[in-house]
Specification:
With 496 residues, the chain is mainly alpha-helical. It is built from 17 helices and six strands. The N terminus is likely disordered.
């Protein structure tokens, strides 16, 4: 119904004696009522109505659907007004209403007027128009002024007075660089009485580095340069080199065909330069989701779709998204065309990989940037300083290790002198022992204790002995083997 409302509003605004236009008046009717069966994707009964050739040829009936200038001989009018089951759209298509009286009348008037098909103006080759003749030639400084003046003079309107020099300078500064002029620049321009003062200012602004920075912003928006990296984890994307490439291209006044080729396929050119590879950063900025739950292949496919749609929007000046699911209703793009273009970009590897099952990491392509002459010198100096520092660190570590060994031997000697004897392990002489599980113990000749009886599931052993006369530094408990234990122990497990 949304399309139907649009059609009706458009038709009501057209005077009855006005020429009916195909794109404005007829295509919406055919798109809503006919193209699903007789359009780009499907031609039932061999009839296609989105192209003039198909409509003039007709379908299997052998009769043309449209006879220019002869509505009564045009089969399409008979079919859309038929009272019975032969009516089109067919009655079984519940979602498509039949044409109303006003739509039928518009279709009839179009056929009577010659049934001229049209392509959209954006697909028509531009034709240079004749430059209009105007009365006020004193305000003409270029051909565009004549077109503006002709429209104004037709309404008896006049141009506004020229802006003062300060205002004019501010406008051209903001337009070309995005920055206002300084007070000194305004004073100098106002004081310059030469006839080419404005031309000189424009030339200086076009040569300014600020020019490329200002106009690169709009292009970088098309390249998704400042978009978030993902939906959740907005990681840093190091693509500043592409930003600089765009700025340099703007300032160098690079031809648009070269500007296009290098951004779409700079890396595929014969022996591509580093700058041409950097230019392909245009398509390195689609969303790359790395949060938990991401399917890597789905993410890759979404990136390809983004590249296709962005290419269509930026370079074709049209939206291709419709053709992801069906052929375009208003533009000459089929769903097959969409996925042919998709195939050009569908050669990229996965750019995210799992990180322990809960997160994903980006591991897409990277590129080592070349260094300029000054940067190369700075890099060599930094590398020399790093090597010197690493040598000093290795020497310091060696010296530290040597000093530590000397210090350790010294401390051991001091400890020996203080204790008079070298510390040694001495067995404890037990005086009392007990088990919370009532297990008996036998004191063996070597001073160790052997538990006997049935092992308990849990038991707390308690041992007592007299404190030695010398200082105690550590206490060690050993579980020993014995021939009475299963497999000689040391555990008391009785199950083989």
């Amino acid at each position: 119904m949304r399309h139907l409302h649009t059609v009706l509003i458009t038709l009501l605004a057209i005077p009855l004696n006005a020429e009916v236009g195909f794109n404005r008046d007829i295509r919406p009717i055919l798109s809503d009522k006919c193209f699903s069966c007789h359009g780009m994707d499907q031609q039932k009964a061999g009839l296609r109505l989105d192209l003039a050739e198909g409509a003039l040829k007709g379908g299997k009936s052998g009769k043309p659907a449209i006879v220019p200038g002869k509505p009564d001989e045009s089969l399409i009018l008979h079919r859309v007004t038929h009272p019975g089951e032969d009516r089109m759209p067919p009655p079984e298509k519940d979602s498509i209403d039949p044409l109303d009286k006003q739509q039928v009348d518009t279709l009839r008037r179009w056929i009577a007027g010659g049934a001229k098909y049209q392509t959209h103006w954006s697909y028509q080759k531009p034709v240079r128009p004749e430059v209009p003749v105007v009365r006020n030639t004193s305000r003409v400084s270029n051909p565009i002024d004549r077109f503006i003046l002709s429209r104004l003079e037709a309404r008896n309107w006049k141009l506004s007075p020229p802006a003062d020099k300060a205002r004019l300078l501010r406008r051209v500064h903001l337009d070309l660089t995005g920055l206002p002029p300084s007070i000194q620049e305004v004073d100098a321009f106002v004081a310059d009485k030469s006839p080419d003062a404005y031309r000189k200012v424009v030339g200086e602004l076009l040569d300014s580095k600020r020019y490329g920075e200002h106009w690169a912003r709009q292009w970088l928006d098309l390249a998704r340069y400042a978009d978030s990296n993902g939906f959740q984890a907005d990681q840093l994307r190091d693509s500043w080199a592409y930003r600089d490439w765009v700025i340099d291209a703007m300032n160098a006044d690079m031809p648009f065909d070269q500007f296009t080729i290098e951004q779409i396929a700079g890396d595929l050119l014969p022996s591509p330069t580093p700058a041409q590879k950097i230019a392909t950063g245009f398509h390195r900025t689609p969303t790359c989701n790395v949060e938990a739950g991401v399917d890597p292949e789905e993410n890759r496919t979404n990136q390809v779709v983004d590249r296709v749609n962005t290419t269509g929007t930026v370079w074709l000046g049209t939206s291709l998204e419709c053709a992801q699911c069906h052929s375009h209703k208003y533009d000459p793009f089929s769903q097959e065309d969409y996925y042919r273009l998709f195939a050009f970009f569908n050669n990229t590897p996965l750019e995210v990989k799992g990180g322990g099952g809960v997160t994903y990491n980006f591991y897409g392509p990277t590129m080592d940037l070349p260094l300029s002459g000054k940067q190369g010198i700075q890099m060599k100096e930094a590398q020399a300083q790093l090597k010197k520092a690493e040598t000093q660190l290795a020497s310091a570590k060696k010296e530290a290790d040597t000093g530590f060994g000397k210090w350790l031997r010294q401390k051991k000697a001091e400890l020996d002198r203080d204790r008079k004897t070298t510390p040694a392990w001495n067995p404890v002489k037990f005086t009392k022992w007990a088990s919370s599980a009532k297990e008996p113990f036998e004191l063996l000749e070597d001073g160790s204790l052997l538990a006997g009886g049935t092992p308990g599931n849990k038991a707390l052993y308690t041992f007592e002995s007299r404190a030695p006369s010398t200082p105690v530094a550590s206490l060690k408990l050993d579980a020993l083997t014995h021939k009475s234990l299963l497999n000689n122990g040391p555990g008391r497990n009785t199950t083989p």
